[in-house]
Amino acid sequence: MRARYGVRRFGYGVAMIERARRGFENLRLGFCSLGAVLGLLGAAAAQGPVANAGFTINAATCPRLADPKLTNARIDLGIELRPATGFALVKVTLWKGGALLGPIWQGRIACTAQPHMVSWDGRMAPAGSAVRKWIDPGSYEVQYEAEQEGTRATAVQRRPLDIVRLGITEVTALPAGPNSEWQMVYFKRGTTAGTFFYATPVLREYLNVADTGQISDLDGNDGMPRPSVPVHTATASPRMEGTLYEDDSYNYPLCYRAGVSPRFEVRFGATGTSASGLLVGAKYPVPGVLLRCRLDSSLGPWTSNHLTLAPNVPEVFTGPPLPNRFGRTDANLEWSFQCSTDGGLHWQHMAGVVRTQHRFFTVLGVPRFGGASGVQYSGPWVEVAEYAHAWQQALGTNVSTPEGMTEVVVKGFGGQLPGIPTAIENVRYDTNILGGDGGASHYYDWSHSVQLSRLLDTHQNGWFVNCSDCASSTAALLGMLGIQSVQMNRLGNMSLRAIRGIGAPSYTLALWGGTYAHGFSYHHVVTRTAGTTICDACLWVDEDGNPNALPGLPGFNVDRPWGGSPTSYQSLLAWAPISYQLEALPTLQ
Q1: What is the DSSP letter of 419?
Q2: Under 8 Å CB-to-CB from 342, ≥6 apart: which residues?
Q3: Is residue 315 scored above 70 in pLDDT?
Q4: DSSP-assigned letter for residue 551
Q5: Rounded CA Rg of the chain
Q6: pLDDT at position 192, please?
Q7: In terms of DSSP H, where are the helices of 232-354?
């Protein structure tokens, strides 16, 4: 039993020795395989990425100029690889003066016959910061690196990129010929009552530059682009900065003769704010690169002399003709930019635009103010033009002729019509039955002038007006809106038929109430034809066929013939013939 047991133990030992031998052999072979693998990896590492090997960047595209702060501006970068099979790892980086600034984009793309496009917003996080900011104006390079999968072949290209800063700081409306463009006037200073006539600037009706404490004209102190200035829509006062007139940010309405083509002299800003909050130049012109501006608008395209742009150097643009009628036209303007590297043979569109809005008033003729001079006589008052525009919109009258314009002013002044529920500033005739004091003038004085600013300034001299107030104000409105040959006409004593005074709820045969005579000792009206026709916004005559009885049918006095028919002004207004005396167009106060 022991011998047999010993043999068995001897056999087990031999087997164990054989297993150990085989293990050592496998271990030896394993070390050989690992060495071979490490040797292959070492050889590959020593070899590195394979340059070329038939793999190339066929095209790397980059705009020559860009301003990422423009509205809707994106810097489109493209890369096209050859051969057009497989995939590649691509990295796009930004360089300046031979130094790497940082990554723009990286990713895996298919190598195809079409370029792969990357859209970049022009922002990058400065070293040590996670906040991405617009890169400053200056000269850069965009580097494209590609590595082909499988072969690890690589290719590199660089393209120049100049970042510039573009923007509009000044717009001046230029005349399109003699007597074709005028300043507009505000009659109030902020909320202060009184006579403070402010004519819009002869230069720079649009201005958008740095205010006190601000670093640059085109950007805020935080580097954000300065927004365009909206149209100033207040009608009584210009834009204010506290108690002072605004002097660095405004956009005032413009006035042109109907049908002319407006002309703008434009200046482009010279300074921006860097990512670190410092003043920086616009960084153009760029040597070897032409830069021009194109202007399109809701009116149609504008033309320019297409000179190479330079900061703060004026360029003139001419617009399409304005409407050949009186009115207000609000236009949206879009300024875009193009660059050329071959002397102007070919132009490349730059991404992004500047947008501004402008308000044009068109009048039919030269504004007239009774021969007076001064800033309040430079052109139409803004509030008068706005009133006339609103009246025309309500009435729907054709305002391409003086007759139509006269109808708008006379009917609008008197009001109490569909769309024009009250008389101008809600005034009413100065008669006892309406609460007045008996027909006195409040805005017209006998030096032959009218305090129109008092009337428009929320009837500063009171709610009540008489015929002289109405006639002088109507004459002034017509004159400043370009209606020619306007005169006042003073009528003599008369006994009245049925009339409806301005602001009155109905017709009357007892204008002064009680037993007072239903008549005028005098009456002022307006004429454009030296008295042969009459405009009277103060009252309506009765056109129901029986002007001596109530209730009365509205008869508007817009260029109504003076005499010669049953429906003439003289026949419907009074019982007997009336004398009259022509007077000049009144001046303004």
Answers
A1: T
A2: none
A3: yes
A4: S
A5: 41
A6: 81
A7: none
Cβ atoms within 10 A of the Cβ of 346, count? 10
Contacts (Cβ under 8 Å, ≥6 apart) of 449: 370, 472, 586, 587, 588, 589
Spatial separation of the C-alpha atoms in residues 358 and 333, rounded to whole Å: 8
- Distance from the Cα of residue 450 to its chain's centroid: 35
Sole residue written with tokens 């049953």: 566
CB 155, CB 55: distance < 8 Å: yes
Strands (E), 149-289: 153-163, 168-174, 181-182, 185-186, 198-199, 206-208, 240-241, 244-245, 249-251, 254-257, 263-268, 271-273, 279-281
Instruction: Judge if the upstream peptide bond of residue 551 is cis by omega within 30 degrees of 0.
Output: yes
How far is the C-alpha of 451 from the C-alpha of 431, rounded, in Å?
20
Copy the structure tokens of residue 424.
Answer: 């101008």
Contact call for residues 253 and 231 (beta carbons, < 8 A)? yes
Tell me the one-letter amino acid at 343: G
Rounded to whole angstroms, the Cα distance separating 501 from 438 reads: 13
Q: How far apart are CA 47 and CA 55, in angstroms?
A: 17
Helix, strand, coil: what percent of the chain each, to 5? 20, 35, 45
Within 13 Å and on the Cβ side, how many CA atoms surround 133? 18
Residue pointed to by tokens 């500033």: 425
**Which residues pair with residue 561 across a beta bridge?**
533
DSSP 282: -
The CA distance from 479 to 207, in Å, is 30
> Phi and psi of 97, rounded to 5°?
60, 35
Q: pLDDT, tens digit, for every residue of 331-365?
A: 999 999 999 999 999 999 999 999 999 999 999 99
- The Cα–Cα gap between 389 and 548 comes to 36
In 379-462, which ranges are E strands? 428-429, 444-445, 449-450
Task: Say how far apart CA 461 and CA 453 lie, in whole Å.
Answer: 10
Q: How far is Cα 277 from Cα 69, in angstroms, rounded to an integer?
A: 15
Residue 344 gets the label, from left (phi > 0), alpha (psi -120 to 50) or beta, of: left
Angstrom CA distances, 289 to 63, 166, 512, stand at 12, 15, 80
- In DSSP terms, 489 is beta-bridged to 525, 582
List the one residue out of 45, 39, 123, 113 whose CA is nearest residue 81.
Answer: 113
The pLDDT, as a whole number, for residue 49 is: 45
- pLDDT (tens digit per residue) in 103-160: 999 999 999 989 999 999 999 998 778 899 999 999 999 999 999 999 999 999 999 9
CB 147 within 8 A of CB 88: yes
- Between CA 527 and CA 523 the distance in angstroms is 13
Show the tokens assigned to 100: 């790497």
Look at residues 59, 152, 62, 160 and name the one whose alpha carbon lies nearest to residue 114.
59
Residue linked to tokens 């703008």: 264
